């Protein structure tokens, strides 16, 4: 199933640039009605059960809980109707209905009802689940172009935000294409071509920058005031906040690229290493300030740390120490010369780059391999000695159309992720010819046709036909699942040989190779961003009066902890139980301080064995999860309860009924949400859902909005005053009412705090495995799992149970499943 392609040409004024505007015609998906043309046929066997056990509360005008059979429709091809009947099925199967206080149906009676309803629901879902086209989302689009062309461009920011279904933004039915998309795709590929095509015949030499604070403009202003210069030329920073920031403008780069960065220095007047932040900064208002990393330097003599980072043009290095112990010292009173507290001494900062892995780039080779592209010598040969020199080139060909055909076939084969037929190639060759006819050079016409390829449906959409996937389609699905980009050469090779679908171990071997590969962190980042909502970690800024300990190092470490934890469970093939009840934590010195765990030094994240009493390690105790499930000022058991229910337990609560007001926390400390929710749950329309979502939220009340442990709430109003300082400043918050983290689950199990709740949750060994199976399959296939997928999900979970729910093996089972290998 494929959209038609209508190329339209557009000349852009200025330099001789040709762009192509490509419109994807509307894709008319086939309308597939479920095979329930005669509703009476499938509903008739259900009627005796409904009359006997449901009609009193939900029939003849009765609508207890807002549900009435009088309004129930029976056309299962309607998504809303299907959802209602699916809910009926689940409530009866789980014995939630009829309610326990009324006469219960016999086991055979219940089983017959479930059996009669299973078939129609399965058939209806089977008819519609594979009909949606799936487009590359923004991240996949960016990764694909950068990987094919060897560029490092931020293309996501050019494109409209992708729609979401639940947590995920790669679900086919939410990914449409508008004229805005198409116009921005043209701009994006134009940027990629500009960045990847060589501007000269020789690789440019890397720049080498050697700078120090003493000789900088910053040094002239701050040395002797808040910075101190030592005899070896090093400049010492004594504070880890405020102004000046530690930006060294002499490290600004003229060319964006990957740089090797070396920082030489030592911990001054300190017996312990000093941790410091390294990031980028420029003078553009509102621009991002990237983090390049956190490092530490030991006490003297000087030593050097070295790392690589992508540095954008005109960005400068910023160094800021963290965690300096200034208690007992007064720099204003003693001055920098008399100050005896610890400081970070920096001798010099060196940059080398841009570092070039390949010249010409992969994109240049993709376009011009086998083509005679020659440089036109400038009138003044000395111009070529300048770093800013941009050469002029021309393509010499005795058969421009034949050469273009070969090039476009090579490009289209890479772009379309499979063999390209002559019919597929024809529009792009014709576009090349039409551009030549209006006076474009061979290179300009080739660029235009290339732009059209990367705006075409064959590139933008996954080429998956109904039924079993071909080897090419399976390679594509596997690659975008585990590496978030187009298949690499090895995966393409085995797909072309038909070895992914021949029943051999090749598919499993390729899965393991990708999991162990350098691009797998993209999967970790994208999946955790969606599943755990880490993408919103920066959405709220914690109130600095309530949480003065919150800083950038903590926020960066929060994200790193969860991603490192997830990756560690995969790579070590640990049990999925670790997500609920872990015996280790991924920590660095900043997280350890935040969590109150001793003995962890240094800024690098690593696995640390911890006792259960530490209440740390698993997902629900990680600061990132606790922050994204709060609002920066306070916590809500409802919000956190919904988060846990949806993302870990795998159940989506019904939305609140219309007209029922929400429950808001009181940061003055006068009352707790538990008090308010007790009244809220007395409403009949609210009770059933709150019995499900409130207990997890109550269990997490012992963690504040930034993930710190608490036994009392913080307040800016009433409460007990504190004699406490953070960062040399007295805290302004007060201690409010005590925290009550007890609760009772819907099945009657009770807990007195988080640790007991965790144990109850972890007792169901299949719980997190089932949730992860559904989430991973959704992420991998680009569609939500539905009713007809349940038997396969059950089989995957059963297989996982026999393997102790080991996570890497669960991913392998998913790849080998019918759902993954079929459209």
**Helix proportion:** 25-40%
User: How many E strands?
Assistant: 22
How large is the share of residues in beta strands? 5-15%
Secondary structure tally, helices: 29
Low-confidence stretches: 1-37, 666-670
Radius of gyration: 31 Å
On the 0-100 scale, what is the average pLDDT?
88
**What is the straight-line distance between the termini?**
12 Å
Rough shape? Answer: flat
Biggest beta-sheet profile: 6 strands, antiparallel
Which class best fits the helix and strand makeup? alpha+beta
Describe this structure as you would to a colleague:
By secondary structure, the protein is an alpha+beta fold. Among the domains are: 39-128, no CATH class; 207-353, Sandwich (Jelly Rolls), CATH 2.60.120; 534-762, no CATH class; 774-821, no CATH class. It is 38% helix and 14% strand. It has 29 helices and 22 strands. The strands form eight sheets. Strands 3, 4, 5, 7, 10 and 12 form a six-stranded antiparallel sheet that branches. A four-stranded antiparallel sheet has the order 6-11-8-9, with no helix packed on it. It has a two-stranded antiparallel sheet with strand order 1-2. Helix 11 packs across helix 12 (422-437) and helix 22 (637-649) packs across helix 24 (684-699). It is flat, with a radius of gyration of 31 Å. It starts with a strand and ends with a helix. 38% of the residues are buried.
